[in-house]
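ok trying again, last paste got cut off:
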Amino acid sequence: PEFRKEVTELAAKLEAPEEEVARRAGHDLYGLVAAMSPMAVDMLSGVLRPLHSRAWDVQVDTDGLERLRELNKKHALVFLPSHRSYADPLLLADVLAEHDFPRNHVLGGENLSFWPVGPLAKRSGIVFIRRVFGDDEFYKLAVREYFGYLLAKRFNLEWYMEGGRSRTGKLRAPRYGLLSGVAEAVERGRVDDVYLVPVSITYDQLREVSAMAAEQVGTPKKGEGLAWLARYAKAQLEPIGAAHVRFAEPISLRRALAAVDPDDPGGRRLALQKAAFEVAVGINRVTPVVATALVTLTLLGVRDRALTLGQVQQVLEPVRRYVEARGPVDGVPSAEALRTPTGL
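nice, full thing came through this time. structure:
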């Protein structure tokens, strides 16, 4: 009924036939909707697990997960992880499954819906969505309705606010469009509250670094497809360290929206920007300092000079002492190795 009511209102706004508006909005809605077939989930997991299972030893913040489990008994969660690798959603899905969490509805770009992975993913809770909506009121209506439905049923969502992988390890500026759709579900009373969950996914090393570095200096990005997937899978066969998954304190979206001044036309957008900024701060707060990051920082800091092993250790030492002085290097045992030339 709510959807039909909005169709009627949009038809009046656009001065278009209601049947045409319903047809176009319905078509867009059908394109978004994902199923959650146990068989498809198992098949997709089996096909994609080699993309990350051999490459990293996964270290998980189990205390953070237990806090989220209690919260999820009453409220839907929106997981908002950092984005550094194609493996991020695969790795997080495995972590949640291993700790008996319901599977997220994961929002992904339409560029990843290639055959045969796309149809299988769509039956495994992957929602393929446009990167840009523009002024397409029909598509906005479909997204708004689908988000409201999922959250009202307490399905958890997941997407990557940066809109793409970080090429530097630093968080990219967040995008707010999808967050606005969740906010509308809260404002319209479809759901009492939704909690945003900042998630840090950090890797000792990434196979993708060389390709991303090449793209940064002008090499065209290769399109995704079966050949791309095969190359990526082949590169992930050798272990390359640990992956760290951590969860920051969740953020109540209702509380964030409560600060909006009703007389300020830009107040809602400002409230969402602040909420997104809180998510970024939360991610940074729980992101561990890994040994490879410290060494990389040292090597990049001297720009075009070559360094001997002794010089690397000399430049690194004050940075290492600074990190240790700020507290224990929790969950990063490899940082201890940086004290010795052999470990370095």
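cool. The two ends are 64 Å apart (CA to CA). The chain has 14 helices and eight strands.
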